[in-house]
From TrEMBL, chain A:
UniProt keyword terms in alphabetical order: Methyltransferase, Transferase
Gene Ontology MF term list: methyltransferase activity; protein heterodimerization activity
Family membership noted in the UniProt record: Belongs to the TRM112 family.
Record-given protein name: Multifunctional methyltransferase subunit TRM112-like protein
Species name: Plakobranchus ocellatus
TrEMBL record, chain B:
Species of the source: Plakobranchus ocellatus
Class of the enzyme per the UniProt entry, highest EC level: transferase
Record-given protein name: tRNA (carboxymethyluridine(34)-5-O)-methyltransferase
Gene3D superfamilies recorded: 3.30.70.330, Alpha-ketoglutarate-dependent dioxygenase AlkB-like, Vaccinia Virus protein VP39
RRM domain segment(s): 46-125
GO molecular function, one term: tRNA (5-carboxymethyluridine(34)-5-O)-methyltransferase activity
Keyword terms of this UniProt record: Cytoplasm, Iron, Metal-binding, Methyltransferase, Multifunctional enzyme, Nucleus, RNA-binding, S-adenosyl-L-methionine, Transferase, Zinc
Domain of life per record: Eukaryota
Length: 126, 919
């Protein structure tokens, strides 16, 4: 699971959970897999993701290096920063571990890079 | 060189214009159907359309032609394909050849439309020559030289001479002559009447060699039924499986007079062509008898491996040591054609086949076995009723959707490697750097086509999710009714063939609203579901096999219900269907994707390499007219690939007159099916070209736009006529269709209907509420669909037969047990026209943008979360789509019809060959 994917995930499907985002990452195995760097892509993705969540996630998996707590306006042409963002969003992958609902503490296992977000029937709002 | 003729053409302005158009069309067709991408850049490799084995061109004809332009490395010919690849060692030679030979008239036909004109384009790569496969279906045995030449002559004479008695008078079928001994095989019921034996049993002359076969253990029973078929060159028999309940295992066929290539197809998509040499005995046991369908493609010559001819083979051995040595030789003039080719063409002669079978006499016993099996199998199904509550629905889905996919994931994935073209088109048209979620991504076949997107797949099945992830896609395990994604986070959502697995209306609505929820405003979703109506304008989708339907009915009438289960493992679907619901249910089907094997590379050419999957032979004449069930059909092999791009033949087969009028009759009601075919975004493409196949199918434009369209749905839904008549109506079209559409994997998609949903926006697209009432009678048992028949219920179970280790081996011991474990049932809710649109209407922020039928029975909804109205342009686009739809559907009829029919006739009825697998 790349952190950009994590950025889209929420546990608010659980009954009673309202936001469920961002999910806390409790990794046991993290890998960095190289992905071609495309600054335009990174810039574009920044418009689609929740940056604070990415920042938090990257730090929680130990790959927050080079990321500011908040993004300024100068990102667009700051190649170093874009590369750091690129790394955080696309190269860092959580292979094993858990995603934890920030509200209920419910754990969603990540196995082999795949988070399992299924709920039990009684956890679902009906 | 014959270029003179070509030149003459070229000088005509008109011709040149036509030619350019033709090229565009060919390019498109190659890309869509064959995955052959013509590049603008010059390369060393030329794709030569109309220079393929599939349209009777041999390598020998092409070698001298192409080699004059320089270093020709090889000519790669693929079985049944109407194109080949000329591979040069340098670009200049290829460019030269392309310049000089594009439009080259290779040979003239009986009339100008039959001329073979070569069309050339550059491609990046060519597949390697296919090594002739030694593979045979499991359980198939061929004994060469089984009878002497003298015996051969005697047996052929027997067919020809004894015609004096009623029973021996050969029945002349459309495509072959048939004669029965022992029992008459009744094509009307696809069975013999065990109480009505023929006066003459198996001819004495056969006893000796049959005894021999028995002693050698080739067969376990002494046959008591003989069917003699006589095939002239050009005749064939559609793919079929001999009626499972009628005959024991071990079906024996003696080939006399001429060798022939028999095509075997496995329900999982494998195709194997097997050469049956003259005087050889073929025995089909186990899997080859019960699971694989077999048939003979009607054509006048066969493509056979070179090694079957010793003379050629030795030449081959001499000169062919891997491609490398050959590569260096640049003068192809003196190259023995066969030397670099694994395949060659061999003309057929008249062939007489003696097919011996052992009739199953103990039908009662079989009935018991069937019941027993059904009891067990049925245990899984007995509680399967149409769910009344969401929690019942969840329970049903867990068992009949989620668990099934989990269990069949690997096999399922292996048959699903290629996304539907329209889905890909949709994906490709999304703006770069969009964020896409594919909910219900399965093995990820829809992912990775547009590299500019960032895509995340989600599937309920962790096994499928693993497969998807292993292909390099971001994947999570999730439930479409509660998607673990943030609201408004995706630009694009795909939900392909998922929502029909939700067992209540409420859950279907929930799934749809989830899809819309995760879309950002202005985002778009594409939703496919299966459509109930497998018929448009009385034209059935490709999925339906009319013959099957009829057969089904026939069986029902005959009360053969019981016998069913014996073979269910092989044929699971239909049999179980009967047991499960005694009323004529019929329906489900599946999208059988007889895709070629488990190649997970969508772009790969391998899909083209399936021998047997295409039959290039189109016999328009008599065949096409023969649509009566029970009668033989010929050319329409299901697997037939007909992407015949030969200009001539296209137009020749189209009968614009009838076709178009046919269309007009229904054109207004067509729209519903309006398929926004993204394949054909350009209104000009296809439809307007008189020479294009599509053109004839153009319905009247619907000036009323979408609304009307929806209305159309209603109308057409009510118009589902019986299979037979519809078939008939469409027959001519079908033929044409077959040509243009070809048989790529798309045949196996069920007709689908689609609509594009837009989030937020006008209600102009609203659908009448009539459709809003899915039929859900209380405690109604779920019926089990019979593959390739029309749906009779909206809620049903669709069988999936896992190809398995059990294969068909256990067959004879207890037919009922062998493959039992391999049969799964998936729940489907097939959508009535307008139904999905009605659901969309209730989802906040969701507006249907387009809805259309795709080839098959899916209903597609494209949702866009955005404001925006449909511009006139869109409307016309939709109209176009309508045309497309029609097209798409036509072919199906054609192909399906004949096959089935013929199978009934074939003496080896009950084909239904393919088990359909669906998503």
């Amino acid at each position: 699971m790349k952190l950009i994917t994590h950025n889209m995930l929420t546990s608010n499907i659980i009954k009673g959970v309202t936001k469920g985002f961002p999910l806390i990452i409790a990794p046991t195995k993290v890998e960095v897999k190289e992905v071609d760097f495309n600054p335009d892509f990174v810039n574009k993705m920044l418009t689609k993701i929740d940056y604070p969540a990415l920042y938090q996630a990257a730090n929680s998996v130990g790959h927050g290096e080079g990321l500011p707590e908040q993004l300024g306006d100068d990102v667009k042409d700051n190649t170093d920063l874009l590369k750091a963002l690129h790394n955080a969003m696309l190269q860092v992958e959580v292979i094993e571990g858990d995603l934890v609902c920030p509200e209920s503490g419910r754990k969603f296992p990540i196995a082999n890079g795949i988070p399992n977000m299924l709920l039990l029937e009684n956890e679902v709002e009906t | 060189m014959a270029a003179s003729e070509g030149k003459a053409h070229v000088e005509s302005k008109q011709w040149r214009k036509k030619f350019a158009k033709k090229l565009v069309k060919i390019e498109k067709s190659l890309a869509e159907k064959e995955n052959v991408i013509i590049t603008k850049e010059k390369t060393q490799i030329l794709c030569v359309q109309n220079g393929g084995l599939g349209n009777g061109v041999s390598q020998a004809e092409l070698l001298p032609l192409f080699s004059q332009f320089g270093n020709l490395e090889s000519i790669v010919m693929l079985p049944h394909k109407q194109f080949c690849f000329a591979c040069f060692t340098n670009i200049e030679s290829a460019a030269q050849a392309q310049m000089k030979l594009n439009g080259f008239l290779l040979k003239t036909g009986s009339d100008p439309t039959q001329d073979v004109i070569l069309y050339l384009g550059f491609v990046e790569k060519a597949p390697s020559n296919i090594a002739p496969s030694d593979e045979k279906p499991a359980g198939l045995v061929i004994v060469e030289e089984f009878v002497s030449e003298a015996m051969e002559k005697t047996l052929i004479d027997l067919m020809d001479l004894e015609t004096d008695d009623k029973y021996e008078d050969p029945t002349v079928m459309k495509h072959r002559k048939v004669k029965h001994f022992g029992f008459e095989f009744k094509y009307s019921i696809n069975d013999v009447d065990i109480k009505d034996p023929l006066p003459k049993g198996i001819p004495d002359i056969c006893h000796e060699f049959l005894q021999k076969a028995l002693e050698r253990g080739l067969i376990n029973h002494f046959p008591d039924q003989l069917t003699i078929n006589s095939y002239q060159p050009g005749q064939g028999i559609p793919p079929h499986v001999d009626t499972r309940e009628a005959f024991e295992d071990g079906i024996v066929s003696l080939s006399l007079g001429s060798s022939i290539v028999m095509d075997f197809s496995h329900p999982d998509g494998r195709h194997v062509s097997v050469l049956l040499p003259r005087r050889s005995l073929m025995v089909m046991n186990g899997e080859s008898r019960y699971v694989w369908s077999h048939g003979i493609t009607p054509r006048k010559s066969d493509i056979v491996p070179v090694q079957t001819s010793h003379a050629i083979r030795s030449a081959c051995d001499l000169s062919y040591h891997g491609g490398s040595s050959y590569q260096d030789s640049n003068t192809s003039n003196n190259i023995d054609v066969s030397s670099c080719e694994g395949l060659t063409l061999r003309a057929r002669g008249r062939r007489v086949s003696y097919t011996f079978r052992k009739v199953v006499m103990d039908r009662l016993h079989m009935c018991k076995a069937a019941c027993k099996t059904s009891g067990r199998e049925g245990s899984a199904l007995e509680d399967a009723t149409v769910p009344q509550t969401d929690s019942e629905a969840v329970a049903l889905e867990r068992k009949h959707v989620n668990k099934v996919y989990e269990d069949i994931a690997e096999h399922f994935s292996g048959t699903r490697y290629k996304p539907w073209p329209k889905v890909v088109d949709f994906i490709l048209e999304q703006p770069p750097m969009s964020l896409l979620a594919d909910v219900g991504c399965g093995n990820g076949k829809c992912l990775g086509h547009n590299k500019t997107l960032f895509e995340i797949g989600s599937d309920f099945s962790s096994n499928l999710a693993s497969i998807c992830h292993s292909r390099g896609f971001e994947t999570c395990v999730g439930d479409v009714t509660c998607l673990p994604f943030r609201t408004g986070s995706f630009d694009v959502v795909l939900c392909i063939a998922v929502i029909h697995h939700m067992a209540t209306k409420n859950r279907r609505a929930k799934a749809l609203s989830e899809v819309v929820r995760i879309l950002r405003k202005g985002g778009k979703a594409l939703v496919y579901v299966w459509a109930m109506e497998q018929e448009l304008h009385k034209t059935q989708s490709k999925y339906i096999k009319p013959g099957r339907q009829q057969k089904q009915d026939a069986i029902g009438n005959e009360g053969i219900l019981n016998s069913a289960l014996t073979f269910d493992m092989k044929q699971g679907p239909s049999r179980l269907g009967h047991l499960a619901s005694c009323q004529g249910f019929s329906g489900t089907q599946t999208k059988n994707s007889r895709l070629d094997n488990s190649n997970l590379n969508p772009g790969s050419v391998s899909s083209n390499l399936n021998p047997g999957s295409d039959s290039s032979n189109l016999n328009p004449g008599p065949d096409s007219s023969n649509l009566n069930p029970g009668s033989d059909s010929s050319n329409l092999n299901p697997g037939s690939d007909s992407s015949n791009l030969n200009a001539g033949s296209d137009s020749s087969n189209l009968s614009p007159g009838p076709d178009s009028s046919n269309h007009n009759l229904e054109s207004d009601s067509n729209n519903p099916n309006c398929e926004s075919d993204r394949n054909n975004p350009d209104p000009k493409s296809g439809s307007c070209d008189p020479h294009s196949l599509e053109s004839n199918f153009k319905p009247k434009p619907n000036l009323f736009g979408e609304k009307n369209t929806e209305k159309g749905y209603l109308q057409s839904s009510s118009a589902s006529a019986d299979a037979l008549s519809s078939t008939t109506v469409a027959s001519e079209l079908d033929l044409a269709r077959q040509i243009s559409v070809g048989h790529s994997e798309s045949d196996y998609f069920l007709g689908s209907k689609s609509c594009v949903k837009e989030k937020k926006t006008s209600d102009t697209n609203s659908v009448s509420d009539i459709h809003n009432k899915p039929s859900e009678s209380s405690l109604k048992k779920l019926s089990v669909h019979v593959n390739r028949t029309q749906f009779k219920d909206q809620d049903l179970l669709v069988p999936w037969q896992l190809k398995g280790k059990h294969g068909g081996k256990a067959k004879h011991e207890s037919s009922s047990e062998g493959m039992k474990g391999d049969l799964f049932h998936r729940f489907y809710h097939v959508f009535r026209q307008g139904e999905i649109e009605a659901i969309c209407k209730k989802v906040p922020g969701c507006a249907v943008r387009k809805s259309y039928y795709d080839q098959g029975n899916c209903e597609i909804v494209q949702a866009v979360k955005r404001k925006g109205q449909i511009s006139p342009r869109d409307i016309s686009a939709q109209i176009k789509m309508n045309n497309e739809v029609i097209h798409t559907n036509r072919p199906s009829v054609k192909q399906t019809t004949p096959q089935t029919i013929s199978s009934q006739q074939g003496g080896k009825p009950d084909s239904n060959d393919q088990q359909l697998l669906c998503d």
